[in-house]
Design goal:
302 residues, mainly alpha, MetI-like fold, globular
Amino acid sequence: MEPTTSDDVRSVSAEQFHSSLRGRRLIGNAAVVLFFLSTLVGLATLAALIIDILIDGLPWIDWDFLSTYPSRRPADAGLRSALFGTLWVGGLTALFTFPIGTATAIYLEEYAPRNKLTQLIEVNISNLAGVPSIVYGLLGLAVFVFLLGMGRVIIAGALTLTLLVLPLLIVAGREAIRAVPDSYRQGSLALGATRWQTVRHVILPSALPGILTGTILAMSRAIGEAAPLLAISGLVFVTFTPGHPFERFTVLPIQIFNWVSRPQLDWQHVTAAAIIILLLVLLSMNSIAILLRDRFQRRSEE
């Protein structure tokens, strides 16, 4: 029996390597095809829904639909009160959420001590991001409406949605701040800047595009929520335009929920038209945030 040489061992190892490489490439290609098909199915489903909504709703959208109040007759139904309520609630939610979420993310990443209490806070924030929205609605009803005596008004709804989306923005903000290279911090501190000056002039401008991305995701969820605002507002038929944050209100998701539950065929078209307006409001607010994000990102790269 001839002894095994090093050349034979290398030959066997090379054959095993190439055989394993072919198997890995086959699995990788299969995974790529599977992921592509999954993405294609999702996009096709979304496209089918949007096309169906556009076909049903576009003929019903005109100035009267946007400028009149809801009615019990589909031909006379409008979105004025729900549209203004959505703009009020969405604007106040963004006004409350962005500074509070950004400040919390900065504190947890730059100032908070690394101890068990901080770890407990971080775990709870991550868990709160997955709490059902109706729970926040009941919390807002108990705290803002009854305990603080605000009543079922716009600002109570905005504060409730702020509680709902704050965990999302805090998590996104922390990840954006964590992505800033540590050399930026060390270089700023080495030049004599204080910690706050470093945060304000170095870390925050670099992390702001990521924070604005989290804001986009948070506001997208807030504007589309119906359950918490249904618990706060309780109104599905409003025939006045809210003029200040302490008035009763309704929003587009609640109005859509009210119309879609009616059996007449014309209400389905009115509902589709309202969904199109809700999507336009959402895309408009997101576009503003995207423009701001791109502007700050270009500035940070200069």
